Amino acid sequence: AKDLGRNGFQLYSPTMNARSFERLAMEAALRHAVRRNEFRLAYQVKVDLVSGRMSGVEALVRWHHPEAGLVPPAEFIPLAESMGVISDIGEWVLREACRQCQQWRDLGLPPVRVAVNVSALQFHETDIPAVVGRALRDSGLPPHLLELELTESVLMQRVDEVAGVLRDLRAMGVRISIDDFGTGYSSLSYLKRMPIDALKIDRSFVNDIFSDDGQVAEEGASIVSTIITLAHNLRLKAIAEGVETVAQALFLRQRGCDEVQGFLISRPVSGEDLISLFDRNLLP
Ligand code: C2E
Ligand code: CA
Ligand code: CA
Ligand code: CA
């Protein structure tokens, strides 16, 4: 679609012009943001469904555009990928997340894991174990407190190579989870070949456990139960994302899901605001 803007006919389309101008402006702003380091991290709690305590947090990148305000990552991450700057952003996210997690430890707070999202492009174009090793060394964070969230798309390409990289990461002590599990196009065969620790049940599935009238929706509920069972049979943890209601949390606990994350517990917050959520029961 990028090439359409260069095509002579399209030049006469005012909407197309407006759109490609907007995109160019956004690209320039993003390049600027990468140079000036205009990103922040927000942290969303993961709760252990047995203890009710914080078991970890997921780091989520935030970009404050000087004029447009907060630009959602779902918009600028794909742009960053197409511009070839995703690995720069990704490395900053990783380093900052490790630094922040170590700072919580230095404050004497109970240890929690920090999870960092790694895009497929970043995974394939950089030496991830080397970047992770540096981030851990420079921050002083113990490797077992770092988790990487990878989407199924990472695991689909160059399977043997990817499995090797994941083995290296796990040998360092880093944990690996599969993000948005069930939404990719993958066959399940990769699961037994990939050294991983957890499956994250996508928000769309969690949303389908109950119908709008509050009744259990048979199909939706059985998909979620099946993913939990699958995870446990493979000796993996099951983590549900996008949990918004007490009913969803109770259902997930009753089905043996290990951890939940969602607006019910907490929205993503700053590293400072997270401090009040440590060391207490977070389940309603
Ligand atoms: P994700 O990894 O699936 O992250 C979860 C997203 O769901 C976050 O959106 C979070 O704010 C949102 N969320 C959490 N709980 C709830 C809930 O109860 N209800 C609803 N409706 N939403 C909930 P966010 O922060 O806008 O991030 C969107 C996506 O952008 C992420 O999806 C992830 O794929 C990507 N992303 C975010 N940060 C990074 C990053 O540092 N690096 C990379 N590569 N991707 C990132
Ligand atoms: Ca994630
Ligand atoms: Ca998701
Ligand atoms: Ca995602």
Spans of at least 5 consecutive residues with low confidence: 5-9
How would you classify the helix and strand content by structural class? alpha/beta
DSSP helix count? 13
Beta-strand content bin: 15-25%
Query: What overall form do the CA principal axes indicate?
Result: globular
Description:
With 284 residues, the chain is an alpha/beta fold. The chain is 48% helix and 19% strand. Strands 1-2-4-5-6-7-8-9 form an 8-stranded mixed β-barrel, surrounded by 5 helices. A hairpin with a 5-residue loop joins strand 1 (39-48) and strand 2. Helix 6 packs parallel to helix 8 (159-172). The model is unreliable at 5-9 (pLDDT under 50). It binds ligand C2E and calcium ion (CA) (3 copies).
Summarize the structure.
With 284 residues, this protein is of the alpha/beta class. Helix content is 48%, strand content 19%.
Secondary-structure blueprint:
Layout: H1 8-11, H2 14-36, E1 39-48, E2 54-65, E3 69-71, H3 73-83, H4 86-106, E4 113-117, H5 120-125, H6 128-139, E5 146-151, H7 152-156, H8 159-172, E6 175-181, H9 189-193, E7 198-201, H10 203-207, H11 218-233, E8 237-240, H12 246-254, E9 259-260, H13 271-274
Parallel strand pairs: 2-4, 4-5, 5-6, 6-7, 7-8, 8-9
Antiparallel strand pairs: 1-2, 1-9, 2-3
Helix pairs in contact: 4-6, 6-8
The chain binds ligand C2E and calcium ion (CA) (3 copies).
Task: Throw out a few tags for this protein.
9 strands, binds ligand C2E, 284 residues, 48% helix, alpha/beta, 13 helices, eight-stranded mixed barrel, single chain, globular, binds calcium ion
